[in-house]
Amino acid sequence: MVLKMTRLFAALCLALLVLAARPAIAHEHNEQQEAAGQRTEAGHNQAMAPGEMAEHEHGEAMAEHRPTTFSGRLMAWLGNMHPFAVHFPIALIPASWLALVLARRRGHAVDVIRAVIMLAGLAAVIAALLGWLNGGIALADPNPVKLAHRWIGTTLAVLVGGIGIWAWRRTESVNSRAMVWALGGATILLLVQGWLGAVLTHGMAHMMF
Question: DSSP string covering 106-154, please?
């Protein structure tokens, strides 16, 4: 009888020890998993290019500061169209400048080029407005690259928008030397603006040879 009670007591103690050890093992396993996840994330961050790191951090910041009101989410949604909207003035501004130079040299009509110039002006203004919604309405910015990108883009929108209105109101201006110089200057400014935009998304070293 005593032997049976002793065996029963030993079995109960063993069961209690097993049950008590399971949470500790699970806790230690969770800690190991968290440490492994942190090491994996750290290695992933080290393997990421500077531009990818900036884009990753920008995505996390956007997720944290996502607006909750309908108007705020609408403005953010429209602002998210900026990255693809900029491709229209990027294509139309140099294309209209090059087409105008070739047409003037060969004596061709410039009626179609006039329409392209007006479309470039409209596209530049829309892209700039979407850029303001994307970057936030602020006159200053602690990031000098973003600040330059903001105001060069605004200047470009005013310049090309004005060129478009000029071509629309005065048909004869399209075939002038002043229009060639205006579109050429806008193209050079566009190259600078494009480089700044690439720095924001891919990092300063994205053009390293």
Answer: HT---HHHHHHHHHHHHHHHHHHHHHHHHH-S-S--SSHHHHHHHHHHH
